[in-house]
Design brief:
single chain; Rossmann fold; 2 domains; 12 helices; 14 strands; 20% strand; elongated; disordered N terminus; binds alpha-L-arabinofuranose
């Protein structure tokens, strides 16, 4: 890309000279050519704009891969459609970018297009969610969340909560508002719930997708509340769905909170970006939020810098994430023998967060 851009700009410079353009204009063009030659071009295929998490992630990428930091970023919004993301990647390949960054909407179906990127010698960095592919060498590395771990952390919190408040396993009736079906975030969080429900003997009434949006979260929750009269836990696979579910709970004349013995519906959620959701967790309307960290921009920048130096960054990099609780009784949860602190959500905690 750098080479192509240089020759293109050199032609423009010569044309300017031939046409007798002003000297100032010529100097400016030469300077731009030099800058463009130095910058690293990155094509970023983003999932879409379905949630507050996604917007925070887009901001993080755009504010890290800037011109001032030496990047030329081409941003493409996939509008939650894999076909659009594949088209974007093909256009990045045609443009001869230096790097492709992909936040995949779903895990499968990337083989052909990533074969094409590989043949074109363009390194691919997978961000946020994972892909399943025949040849692992089709991408350089992955940075993002461990969604399966996130799901199990939420369920360990629920198990300890039930124990602390003497709620029998057969009295727990859960509905799962899943994320976009086939995305790593949905697969991991749903798997964490299904396995934990089996382990602890909880009843999962229904699993249905809310597409990670508030509107769909509200719609499916309203429908499930009409269908089942004993739901007392809603496991929302992101905060936007949780906001929609709470609207549906209130519209049905019920109360979102932690007092299950008094008829509350306990809301579990993921992300911790949306301000209303965080404030709901502060006041107890949402019982627990497992953080999903969206700040991948600086991480991708570090990876590209390291690839530029000819190094081999870690193939898989999971980010550390906090578990926020609205109640003080649960201090830590243990998953696969590893202990994770639980953070009681307070105003000070909110004020000290990076986002
Ligand atoms: O992949 C991360 C998930 O995608 C976030 O939890 C969700 O809000 C987003 O849309």
């Amino acid at each position: 890309m750098k080479k192509k851009l240089l020759s293109f700009l050199a032609i423009i410079c010569s044309l300017c000279v031939m046409c007798g353009c002003a000297t100032e204009q010529k100097d400016y063009t030469e300077e731009s050519a030099a800058q463009a030659a130095d910058s690293i071009s990155v094509g970023f295929s983003q999932v879409g704009a379905e949630s507050d998490w996604r917007s925070a992630n887009t901001d993080s990428m755009k504010s890290s891969l800037t011109k001032e930091n030496g990047f030329d970023l081409i941003f493409m919004d996939g509008q939650q459609k894999q076909t659009k993301q594949i088209t974007a990647i093909r256009s990045f390949i045609q443009q001869g970018v230096d790097y492709i960054v992909l936040a995949p909407v779903c895990e499968t179906g990337w083989d052909s297009v990533l074969d094409e990127a590989y043949e074109a010698n363009i390194p691919v960095i997978i961000v946020d969610r994972m892909i399943q592919i025949n040849n692992d060498n089709r991408y350089s590395c992955f940075v993002g969340s461990d969604f399966y771990l996130e799901g199990r952390k939420a369920c360990e919190w629920l198990n300890q909560y039930a124990t602390a408040y003497d709620i029998a396993k057969e009295d727990i009736h859960i509905v799962d508002i899943q994320g976009t079906i086939g995305s790593t975030a949905q697969i991991g969080r749903t798997k964490g719930l299904v396995e934990s429900a089996k382990k602890y003997g909880w009843d999962i009434r229904e699993k249905t997708s809310g597409d990670f949006t508030q509107a769909k979260g509200r719609e499916v929750m309203a429908q499930m509340l009409r269908q089942y009269n004993n739901i007392n836990v809603v496991y929302c696979e992101n905060d936007n769905e949780a906001l929609g579910a709470i609207e549906a709970i209130e519209a049905a004349g019920k109360h979102a909170g932690s007092n299950l013995k008094n008829g509350d519906i306990l809301v579990l959620s993921f992300d911790g970006i949306n301000e209303t959701a965080i404030n709901y967790a502060l006041e107890g309307t949402i019982a627990c939020i497992v953080e999903c960290n969206p700040l991948h921009g600086p991480r991708v920048r570090t990876i590209i810098d390291s690839l530029e130096r000819g190094e081999n960054p870690d193939k898989i990099e999971y980010v550390d994430e906090t578990l926020y609780s609205s109640v003080n009784v649960i201090k830590s949860v243990t998953v696969d023998g590893a202990k994770y602190d639980v953070t009681l959500l307070t105003q000070d905690v909110i004020d000290s967060r990076e986002y």
